[in-house]
Amino acid sequence: MNITEAQREKLRTMPARLKTVLTGQDMAIDLVAERLQHGELGLATPGRPKASFLFLGPTGVGKTELTLRFTEDLLGPGRVVRLDMSEYQTADRLALLLGSSESEPGRIAEGFDACAGRGTLLFDEIEKAHPRVLDVLLQLLDAARLTAGRNRVLDFSEWYVVLTSNIGGQRIMTLRKSKYETMERLVRQDAQRELRPEIFARITVTVVFNKLDYEAQCEIADGMVAKECAALSTRGFAVSPDRSVSDVVIQRGYHERLGARPMRDATELLVRNALAQELLRGGGGGGRLRSHRDGMKLQLEPSLA
Fold it and tell me: CB-side exposure of 249: number of CA atoms within 13 Å?
């Protein structure tokens, strides 16, 4: 396979880049990056997707986020076709997935076309899918081909496939002090009891995600505050946070069981509320963001002209 030095360097440094944007999951990133490198170097099994992953772990630990990040790193933005399996729990929903007429090509075919034939197909919460949907998935994993509406055959040999599941999440939350290897083995056993064995026979690698501890969530809070302020700056609001901002976000957003999602919601709410109050007072929307005196919200101190 012909590959440039720039492409080689990008693949070599991919794990480090992913670790800068996803906190607390270094082990998972290393496992995934190995298979991504195989896929991009032409070492994947012929006639199958470039790699397929089963991501296991509690909610809010980065399973979907890692999928989005590695796809953007390798292929660019907008290349993930995300399918929420909670929408496909009955047999009649299969038509929505695959298409049933000339005017309804199906969600998978629509995503395939939108990604120009190369991307990542994400089946979120796979344990909720109807058995007939799993039959379709097995066909895809086995031969990298899928027959959609209008008898159109889609070739997924240039794609990555990710299945996510919260199976084992409760066990991970209770194994606070166990070694990763012990936790991984037990969670795999849980998944093997609940999911069809044919899935495990076809998946390239199963990856168990760690619970995000308090230190990891503090680091995530810092990153989310910085990201939110950067996003506001692109809209003309020059907002700079001090250290106290993250402390308030952690107080409002830390959740042991739900991971990073409440932290993201708290960040957006607190920062935007502070900005909104300043704008309603007639301010210009720029200044220093810091904790409010009541300790549970933020305030924006306008810049001195």
Answer: 34
